[in-house]
Write a structure and sequence with these properties.
Two copies of one chain form a homodimer.
Chain A (H helix, E strand, L loop, with lengths): L1 H10 L17 E2 L6 E5 L8 E4 L5 E5 L3 E6 L7 E4 L17 E8 L4 E7 L4 E7 L9 E2 L14 E4 L2 E4 L13 E3 L15 E9 L9 E9 L10 E9 L18 E4 L3 E2 L4 E2 L2 E8 L8 E7 L5 E7 H10 L25 H9 L17 E3 L3 E10 L5 E9 L4 E5 L6 E6 L10 E5 L4 E5 L3 E6 L10 H6 L5 E3 L4 E3 L14 H5 L10 E6 L5 E6 L6 E6 L2 E4 L1 E3 L2 E6 L8 E9 L2 E12 L8 H16 L1
Parallel strand pairs in A: 1-27, 33-40
Antiparallel strand pairs in A: 2-30, 3-4, 4-5, 5-6, 7-8, 8-9, 9-10, 11-12, 12-13, 14-15, 15-16, 16-17, 18-19, 20-21, 21-22, 22-23, 24-25, 25-26, 26-27, 28-29, 29-30, 31-32, 34-38, 35-36, 35-39, 37-38, 39-40
InterPro entries (chains A, B): Ig-like_fold, Plexin_repeat, PSI, Semap_dom, Semap_dom_sf, Semaphorin, WD40/YVTN_repeat-like_dom_sf
Pfam family, one (chains A, B): Sema
Main location (chains A, B): membrane
C-alpha cells in the first residue's frame, strides 16, 4: 500500500504512468544464491578503487591503497599483487608518509604497459609498469598530472601517446581544468579557475573523418554563480577542447587551450520547472558514426531524486558549433568553431576573444527533449551502459545503475515506462560501491567495494525460470530459451525483449502444457494453517483461487501467503496460487486441503491386532 | 524495506533524522470499527461543500449543489434541507440554468441569519436566510461578491457588518482581489489585476488595542512573474488591507484600497535550496495577544512534497511595518505603515505612491526560520489546527491534515521529528475530501465528500488500549487514563503528551501487573503453523521470543506473524510476541506449542465401548 502511496506522492507530479509502483521496482532480485558471483577480497581496506581491463578475459587491474593488483577470475592462481611507490620513501623526508593511494590507472601501448599514478597526500607520483614484470617501475613526480588529495576524483584519458588529465594543479585546489601531457603537440593547460568544479568524466568525440576535428569532452559540475534565490547550488557542464590544439602564441594564451568552450548540460522537465542540476556519473556508448554516439548521464537534485538523460555526440557538437556566446553581444563571434591544424597561427584578435568568451548560450538538451529517459527516487550513484545484439538483429541497450546500498539495477532502455529487469546483489552486506567496470566483450561487470571486487556474469539466466514463458517474460536481452533452459542469448534462442510476449514460445514450438505441482494436506478440524506461494516476479499480480472464491495474497517479505484461520469442512478443496503478468496467467502452486476425520485418527493397523489380543484374553 | 528505502531517498536529503520511516507513518489507524463516526449522506452529488457551524452543538450548515442543509448529528430528526434560489428561475431566460451551487456561506448577526451565495455559472446571487425559517429568502444579484464559476474558490470574511470577498469581478477572470461590501465605510475594491491569482484564505489580524489598526490578511498564490529558468511557476503571498480604509480621493485611488500591501510568504530550507512555493491551505490559531496568533500554512512543490510552515501574526505585521518596498529605490518610502482613521485625508503624493508601490522586499519567514515545522511526501490537501489544555496546564497543539485519499492525519505539534498520533479513516471508500470544519468547543471535526458529511469525535480514545500504559504511549492530548479506561482528557486523567512516558501510570498508582493471555496449542507432528500477534502501534518494534531464540516479525498488512514451517519436538515451548516502543517493552501474546503424540490420536472414550461391543459378539 505504502509503495503505491509514496510513488504517488513523489512521481505523480512527474508522469501519471510512472506513478505505477512497479516501474521503480526490479522484476526480480538476484543474490549469490541465484547466480554465480566470483569474488576477490582485497588486502586491507581501500578509500578508492581504480579499475581497468586486464590482458586476458575475466581479468582486471585494481588500484587501491598502496597496492596494484592483477586479478584473474578465471585462473585465480595467475592473480598477483604488488605494492607501489614504496621506493619513494628513500628520497623523502622521514616525516612524509610513503603509503600511496592509486588515483590514476590506464592500460597503454596496446596493453603492454600499465600507467599508474598515486599520492600520499603530499606529492603525487606516476610510473609506467610493464605488464610483464608488475611492480618494478621508475616513478616520477606528477604535479599537475595526478591529484594531491586521495579524495579527489580526477578523471583522465590516455589516447595514443597523449594523456589528458583534470587534476587540481595546486594542493589548495581551485586549479581544476583540463591539461594535456606528452605527445608531439606539447603540454597545454586551462587557465586557473576560481569557481569550485568537480570533474565527473572525460570522453573523446570522434574519431571523425578528419582527425584534426576530434575533440575531447570533459563533463563536470560547477558551483552555480547565479545568485538567484531559487537557483540550484550546482550546475552541470561540458567542456570541449580540440585534440589538435597546440595553444596560443607567446603573448596570448601561451601554452593554454585556444579551443576551450563550455556549454550547460540540461536535464529536466521544463514545463513543470523540475530540473536535475547535479551530474553524478557519465558513460558513453560509441557508435560507428561518431555523431550517433550516445552520452548517458546520471543526475540528481536537492530533493535526492535521480534522472538519466541521454545525449548524442552530434547534439553536443551542434551546440558548440552553432550557439551564440552567453556573455557576448551580437554580431556573431568571429571565433572559428572548427579545430585548426596549428592554433599558433590564429590571428591575435581571435585568440583574445577565445580568452574572454568561452561559455555557450544554448543548452545541450537530451535526445527526448520533453523529459529524461528515466526518473527515480532511488539513490543511484554510478551508470554503465552496454548493448546486446538481439536475435531479431535489433540492438538492445541495457543500463547498469549502482545503488548506495551496494546493489546494481539492470535496466532495459525502452520507450515508455522504466523496466528494471533485475536487482543484482553482489555483496553479502550493505556496502558502498566505489567503482564499476564493464567488460562488454565477455559480458562481465566488475563492482568494487573498499574490501572486495566482485565479478557479475551478465548472462546468468537460469534463475528466470524453468520454462520458455518464464525466460521470455524476463525480457532480458542477455538471455533466451534454448529449448531446455533459459541461457545466454544466441541465434538459436527464443526471446521477445520488446514485449515479453510468451506466445513466441508456442510459435516456436518450445512450450509444453504446464501443470503446477499439487500437494495434499490433511488438517485437524479447526486447525490454523498457512499456504505459501513463491514470488517469481515483482511485477506480477498474485491471487488465491479456492472454493470460497478468490483472495489476494497476504504479501510478506518475498512470500505470498494465505491464512486459514480455522479449518472447517466448507474450506476443503483446491487452493491454487495464480500469477498474472503482462496478460500471461498461470498457476504456480496447488494445494488440496482436507479435514482429518476424527476416525482417521484411529490407526487401524495398530487397532486390529490390539482388539484380537484383548478378546482372546476375555475368551479365556 | 521499501518504506525505509523511499524515505531514505526522498528525505535523507532534508534531514537525516526524518529519514526514519515512522515519523511519516501514523502510530495507529482508526476506522469506523475503532471509533464512532456519525454520518450524514447528502442528496445527490456535489461539486463542492461549504461548511459552517450550526446553532446547536454537533450541528452544521452544509452548502452544496442546489441545496442548503442544516445537519444535526445529535438529533437527526432536527436536520432539514432546503433548495436555494429556485425562485430565480422565474426572472431568467428559460435557457439559463436555475441550478445554483452554493459558493459562500456565513453565519451572521450572532447566528440568527445565514448569508448564502451561489452561482449557476452565469450570474451569482446571494441572500440572507433567517435561521428560523430556512429557505425563504429574497435573493439579489451578487456580481463582484460571489464567483461566477462553480469551480472558483473565493474565500470571504464576514466581520460585524462588513463582508470581505475575493471573487473574480469579471466572468472572464483576471479580476481577483479583495473587496469590501456593506458597512458604514463603503464599498472598496482592489484594482483589476492581470496576473493569475488564486486566493487560499482570509484572516483578521487583530483585534488590536486600537481597532483602527486592525488589518485583513489575504493568503494567495500568484503566477510567478520571475522568468528565471529555475523560478517556480507559483509564488505564495500575503496581502494586507486596513479594516479602517475608506479608499482614496476622487482623483487617486477612488473607492480603492489605500493600505493594500503584499509580501512573499516563504517556506523552505534555504541552505539546501529546497523551496515550497505553492500555498495549499491555511488555518489560524488566534491567541489572547494578537501578535502571538499563529498562521499554519500547508505548501507543496513541483516535486509533490508537502511542508507545513508556522508564522506569527506579529512576524507578518513586522514585515509590513518595516520592510523596504521591492521595486522602489531609497530613500525610505513616505507611505505611512500605520492605518489611518480616514484615508480620504491622505496627501496626494502618498496616495500616488500607494498606487505605484505595494510589494515588500523582505520575505515573511516561519517561526523556526531554519526549516519548516514538518516535511512529508504525503499528499496533504487541507490543514486545521486545534489546541487542548493539558492537565499540566500546558496547551498542546494538534494539526489535522487531510489526505487525497479521504483520510485525515492527527499530528502533534512538538519540537523535533513529526509525530503522527493517528490516521482517521472516516470514509468507507477512497474519496476526495472537499472541506473540513473544526468545532473546537465540542472537539468535533466535520469532513465532507461529494456525497457525505462525517463527524469525527476527536476525543474517542478507547482504541488506544485497555491499559494506562497504552493510553499514555498514544500521546494524544485529547485522551487520558481515568483508572479504568482511556477516555477524554480531564483534570483527573493520567497522560504524558510530551514524552509518552508510561512510568506516570505507576507514579499515579494507576497500573497493575499485566499478564498477556496465553494459549496452548497442540500441533500434529511436522505440522505447518502460523502464530499471530496484533500490531498495536505502527511505531513499535515487534519480535518473537521462543525456545530457538529471537525472531523479528514477518510483517503482513497489519499482522505480525511467525511461520512454523514444520513442527518438531525441539520447537515445543513458549512463544511470546514482545512489543517495544519508546523504551517501553511488554509481551502482547503468548503461545505454548506442543506436539500431539500419535497415541493421543486414539480417542479412548470412543475406543472402550467399541471393544466391548466387539467382544460380546465374539463371545456369542
Amino acid at each position: 500500500m505504502l509503495r503505491i502511496w509514496t510513488l504517488y506522492a513523489v512521481l505523480s507530479t512527474l508522469n501519471a504512468e510512472n506513478a505505477l509502483e512497479y516501474h521503480h521496482n526490479p522484476r526480480i532480485i538476484l543474490t549469490e544464491k541465484d547466480m554465480p558471483f566470483r569474488r576477490h577480497s582485497r588486502n586491507g581496506t581501500h578509500a578508492r578503487s581504480e579499475l581497468v581491463q586486464g590482458q586476458h578475459n575475466d581479468s582486471i587491474y585494481v588500484g587501491g591503497h598502496r597496492m596494484l593488483s592483477y586479478v584473474d577470475f578465471q585462473t585465480p592462481s595467475q592473480s598477483k599483487e604488488v605494492s607501489m611507490f614504496e621506493n619513494k620513501c628513500r628520497d623523502q623526508e622521514p616525516t612524509d608518509s610513503c603509503e600511496y593511494d592509486i588515483t590514476i590507472l590506464h592500460k597503454i601501448s596496446g596493453g603492454k604497459e600499465v600507467f599508474v599514478c598515486g599520492t600520499n597526500g603530499i606529492l603525487p607520483v606516476c610510473c609506467h609498469v610493464p605488464q610483464s614484470q608488475l611492480g618494478s617501475c621508475g616513478s616520477f613526480s606528477a604535479e599537475g598530472i595526478a591529484p594531491f588529495s586521495v579524495e579527489e576524483k580526477a578523471p583522465s584519458l590516455y589516447i595514443e601517446d597523449e594523456l589528458y588529465t583534470t587534476a587540481n594543479l595546486y594542493i589548495r585546489g581551485d586549479g581544476v581544468g583540463i591539461h594535456r601531457h606528452y605527445g608531439t603537440k606539447g603540454k597545454i593547460s586551462s587557465r586557473a579557475n576560481k569557481t569550485e568544479q568537480r570533474v565527473v568524466a572525460m570522453a573523446i568525440s570522434g574519431p571523425r573523418a578528419d582527425p584534426v576535428q576530434d575533440r575531447i569532452y570533459t563533463f563536470f559540475v560547477e558551483r552555480n554563480l547565479d545568485r538567484h534565490p531559487e537557483a540550484a547550488h550546482w550546475v552541470s557542464q561540458v567542456m570541449q577542447v580540440c585534440k589538435a590544439d597546440r595553444g596560443g602564441t607567446k603573448n596570448i594564451l601561451d601554452r593554454h587551450w585556444t579551443s576551450l568552450l563550455t556549454a550547460r548540460l540540461y536535464c529536466g522537465i521544463p514545463e513543470k520547472a523540475l530540473h536535475f542540476n547535479r551530474l553524478l556519473d557519465v558513460d558513453v556508448l560509441h557508435a560507428a558514426n561518431w555523431t550517433d554516439s550516445k552520452v548517458y548521464a546520471l543526475f540528481t537534485t536537492g530533493w535526492g531524486m535521480r534522472a538519466v538523460c541521454i545525449y548524442t555526440m552530434g547534439a553536443i557538437d551542434h551546440v558548440f558549433m552553432t550557439s551564440r556566446f552567453k556573455h557576448k553581444a551580437e554580431p556573431a563571434p568571429i571565433q572559428p568553431r572548427m579545430c585548426v591544424e596549428n592554433s599558433k597561427n590564429l590571428p591575435p584578435e581571435v585568440l583574445r576573444q577565445m580568452k574572454d568568451y568561452q561559455e555557450m548560450k544554448d543548452l545541450i538538451r537530451p535526445v527526448n527533449a520533453s523529459s529524461p529517459f528515466m526518473v527515480s527516487y532511488r539513490h543511484y550513484r554510478h551508470i554503465r551502459v552496454d548493448t546486446v545484439m538481439g536475435r531479431d538483429h535489433v540492438r538492445h541497450t541495457v543500463l547498469f545503475l549502482s545503488l548506495e546500498s551496494g546493489k546494481v539495477h539492470k535496466v532495459l532502455e525502452q520507450a515508455g515506462p522504466t523496466f528494471i529487469i533485475a536487482e543484482l546483489q553482489p555483496f553479502r552486506s550493505r556496502t558502498h560501491i566505489q567503482n564499476m567496470l564493464l567488460q562488454t566483450s565477455t559480458k562481465k561487470m566488475y563492482v568494487s567495494s573498499s574490501s572486495e571486487v566482485v565479478e557479475l556474469d551478465l548472462r546468468s539466466c537460469v534463475k528466470y525460470g524453468q520454462r520458455c514463458e518464464d525466460c521470455v517474460q524476463a525480457r532480458d536481452p542477455y538471455c533466451g530459451w534454448d529449448g531446455t533452459k533459459c541461457t545466454a542469448a544466441s541465434r538459436d534462442t527464443v526471446q521477445d525483449v520488446k514485449h515479453g510476449n510468451y506466445m513466441v514460445c508456442e510459435e516456436e514450438g518450445r512450450t509444453d502444457k504446464y501443470v503446477a505441482s499439487r500437494h495434499v494436506h490433511s488438517l485437524p478440524p479447526t486447525a490454523k494453517y498457512v499456504l505459501q506461494c513463491p514470488i517469481v516476479s515483482g511485477h506480477a499480480h498474485y491471487s488465491w483461487h479456492h472454493p470460497g472464491g478468490q483472495t489476494d495474497c497476504l504479501l510478506a517479505e518475498g512470500l505470498c501467503l494465505m491464512l486459514i484461520e480455522k479449518m472447517a469442512p466448507e474450506l476443503e478443496g483446491n487452493y491454487s496460487c495464480v500469477f498474472s503478468e503482462g496478460g500471461y496467467q498461470r498457476t504456480l502452486v496447488q494445494y488440496e486441503l482436507q479435514t482429518e476425520s476424527r476416525a482417521r485418527g484411529l490407526d487401524s493397523s495398530l487397532l486390529a491386532p490390539g482388539i484380537l489380543l484383548l478378546c482372546l484374553i476375555l475368551l479365556d
